[in-house]
Design a protein that fits this description.
By secondary structure, the protein is α/β, with parallel strands linked by helices. It is built from eight helices and 16 strands. Keywords: ATP-binding, Cytoplasm, Nucleotide-binding, Nucleotidyltransferase, Transferase, tRNA processing.
Length: about 325
């Protein structure tokens, strides 16, 4: 496995060995602004199968295809509407994934046999350079073991996947820290399949022609990251409503409480702060790193408090609930 540390002064040449691997059927972990992805040539079915094998990912969980903003959309979509193109003009490159009818060239293994494909254009300079060097779409889920906490550093990728992949491109921690928002347009109605780093408020403010917003709730295979148990530590995890008292919970063994600078917790348990509620973007950047750290602390139970906030808080609470396999107390 090649370990490629990016030289910020010469990104294009630094990522070329990784791009060569991708062009030749390899699978490569690389940074995006959201989390680290595990990529393969989206048109190479054999390479894409290697992603599923390396992650232990079931074949009914579709992948996101990564492209450059200026590429022709007909490489990935069968067709797009005027409103979809307006949406992409405003939010690409960035952490927004659009689901739409797939182009014939996209193999069914990428979409888990579905007629629609999930596509985004990342804004991270290393991801951009890598896509430019590959000169074609790259299918990439998060670069971690299936259903485990997402990887936001190269070390997380090493810990999870090791020599099962061909290369890791290390450019330091991801900046957003949580995955992209996944949406679909049905005419002028915006369907939200996954909250993420782009807030729905930002979308509706920028897109006055969107007539309504509909939440697609529950577990669904129409979008990546929608299984009830996802982003999950190995340690038993319980989500708590904001401000919940934990005295009534019958917990055995050691407990780690994960909350915020403003949280008030009993001194009988270890407390780990995610940061301040007044800076939820900062909380997003540290969420997965914190979950991985407390998961390695040999505790018997992790209790993690929901934000109860709108905006990016919606995405954080989605990840926390799924980390807890849907178990919420309080």
């Amino acid at each position: 496995m090649q370990y490629i540390r990016v030289a910020s002064t010469d990104i294009a040449n630094t990522v070329e060995p990784a791009a060569a691997l991708l062009r030749n059927g390899g699978i490569v972990a690389f940074p995006t602004e959201t989390v680290y992805g595990l990529g393969a040539d989206a048109f190479n079915k054999t390479a894409v199968r290697r992603i599923f094998a390396a992650k232990g990912r079931p074949p009914d969980d579709p992948l996101i295809v990564h492209i450059r903003r200026h590429w022709h959309l007909d490489q990935v979509f069968a067709h797009t509407t005027s409103l979809e193109r307006q949406l992409l003009d405003k939010f690409w490159p960035g952490p927004l994934t659009l689901i739409g009818p797939k182009a014939t060239a996209i193999p069914s293994i990428v979409t888990a046999g579905l007629a629609d494909v999930a596509v985004r254009a990342p804004s991270h300079p290393v991801a951009i350079a890598l896509l430019d060097a590959v000169a074609g779409p790259v299918a990439a889920p998060s670069a971690n073991r299936f259903s485990y906490v997402s990887a936001t550093t190269a070390q997380h990728v090493v810990d999870d996947l090791g020599d099962s992949i061909d290369a890791i491109v290390d450019a330091g921690p991801s900046t957003a820290g949580i995955e992209s928002t996944v949406v679909r347009l049905r005419g002028s109605v915006l369907e939200v399949l996954r909250h993420g780093a782009t807030t729905i408020d930002a979308i509706t403010t920028a897109m006055p022609d969107i007539s309504d917003v509909v939440e697609i709730t529950g577990s669904t295979t129409a979008s990546p990251g929608q299984l009830l148990t996802h982003y999950s530590p190995n340690t038993a995890t319980i989500a708590l409503a904001p401000g919940s008292a934990i005295d009534r919970l019958e917990l055995e063994g050691s407990v780690v409480l994960v909350g915020y600078d403003e949280s008030v917790w009993p001194e009988t348990h270890r407390f780990v702060s995610l940061g301040s509620r007044s800076n939820l973007d900062g909380v997003a950047r540290t969420l997965y790193e914190t979950l991985r750290t407390v998961d390695s602390s040999n505790a018997d139970t992790i209790l993690i408090e929901l934000t109860g906030a709108s905006g990016i808080g919606r995405a954080l609470d989605d990840r926390i609930r799924r980390a807890a396999s849907g178990r919420v107390e309080g």
